[in-house]
Amino acid sequence: MDQEINNEAKHFWGRRLLVYMAGLLSLAFGVSISTISGLGISPLNVMAFVISQISMVEMGYVTMGVFAVYILIEIAIKGKSFKSFDLLQFACAVLFGYFVNWTKALLSGIVVDHYLLQLLSILISTVLIALGTTLYVSAHIVPQAPEGLILAICERWNQEFATVKLWFDITSVVLSALISLVFMHGIIGIREGTLIMAVLVGVVVKLLTKTGFKARVERFCGVDASQQKG
């Protein structure tokens, strides 16, 4: 009996890892598509884009660095309550960074120069980011670095996730704009597409939840009711 339980647990962990990686890949495609749209980058990734443009280092590598800083801040906030298992966020940041570099390379030959096509690119990016977020959250393994930091702030100062997420996005965009102005003498990576994604990603995530998609993914991953509430 114990052997059967262990085999089932391994089976579902395999599914969870598969779903988590699919989520990161969807996120990476969403980010990369937004970079070729010319209409702006999502708030959570705009800082990596700006620093990448300034330093001429591939965006995926910069993303690894930015996410590592987020994780270190999270560790500082949580202190002893930070679980050793959550150190997997570093590995996930590296994997996501490589996915970003890979997807950007795949899309490098695509030029989007018509405004309607640029808007369509932003909408596709929005859906992919929302889908990716839903998938990796449904796997219930570890949060992505930005989400982990937001959750740490929520727990430490007893704030609502939506409120902290809003201010996190605003701070990220403002800092990115300032860095861009100082080093590029203009604002890059922040346009109407940034605002569109800031608003619509959450809407699409809620839609995927309300339609039962998230619950079906969680069942596929073998996530029990207590984990679904968490």
Topology of helices and strands:
Blueprint lengths: L1 H36 L8 H10 L3 H20 L9 H19 L8 H24 L6 H13 L3 H24 L7 H19 L2 H8 L4 H5 L1
Structure, briefly:
By secondary structure, the protein is mainly α.
Structural class: mainly alpha
Question: What is the count of distinct domains?
Answer: 1
For the report, how would you describe the main beta sheet? Answer: none
Terminal-residue CA separation: 29 Å
Quantity of strands, as a count: 0
How many helices? The count is 10
Rg is: 18 Å
Question: What is the element string, with H for helices and E for strands?
Answer: HHHHHHHHHH
What share of the residues does DSSP label as strand, in percent?
under 5%
Shape: globular
Helix content: over 70%
Average pLDDT value? Answer: 92
